[in-house]
Amino acid sequence: MLQNLRRCTLASSRRLLVSQRLFSASTLRRADPWPLPHTPEHLASTAHEDVQPTPVPRPNESADTLRARLHYQSRKRGTLESDLLLSTFARDNLSTMSEAELREYDRLLDEPDWDIYYWATGKRTPPERWGDSEILRRLAVHAKNEGKVVRRMPAL
């Protein structure tokens, strides 16, 4: 009888400890490691210092070489969303761009992928240096896809 009482007491104390652990773990406020996009937590965790990247100098690069490099860099970004958006934009627009527009697009590609994506989709305001960019405006029109074109990755 005494042994049964000890088992019950031990089991009760274990249940109490387990429930106390669960209660304390559930009441602690932990930061969500994967907050929903565009929530204040997500915006705060993805904000970074607005530092303009230093482009790689490419003296004496011809317009044809620049155009070919931009085609490749538009396709091989690292995130599928940016790859699809930029590669279809490059396919549709690079052949008609002037050399000055190609250089501006080259500077845009030096920015981080998610920044370009959010600026083009209108989820974030671009920094002042891109505020009056014709290339970014054209990319935003491309991102809206008002013609409801089914977009696929272009062949390399």
UniProtKB/TrEMBL annotation:
GO terms for cellular component: mitochondrial matrix. It is found in: Mitochondrion matrix. The keyword Mitochondrion applies. GO terms for biological process: mitochondrial electron transport, succinate to ubiquinone; mitochondrial respiratory chain complex II assembly; tricarboxylic acid cycle. It holds the Pfam family Sdh5. Residues 34-64 are annotated as: Disordered. Signal peptide: none annotated. Keywords: Chaperone, Mitochondrion. Interacts with the flavoprotein subunit within the SDH catalytic dimer. This is Succinate dehydrogenase assembly factor 2, mitochondrial. Plays an essential role in the assembly of succinate dehydrogenase (SDH), an enzyme complex (also referred to as respiratory complex II) that is a component of both the tricarboxylic acid (TCA) cycle and the mitochondrial electron transport chain, and which couples the oxidation of succinate to fumarate with the reduction of ubiquinone (coenzyme Q) to ubiquinol. Required for flavinylation (covalent attachment of FAD) of the flavoprotein subunit of the SDH catalytic dimer. It comes from Lyophyllum shimeji. Belongs to the SDHAF2 family. The keyword Mitochondrion applies. It comes from the Eukaryota.
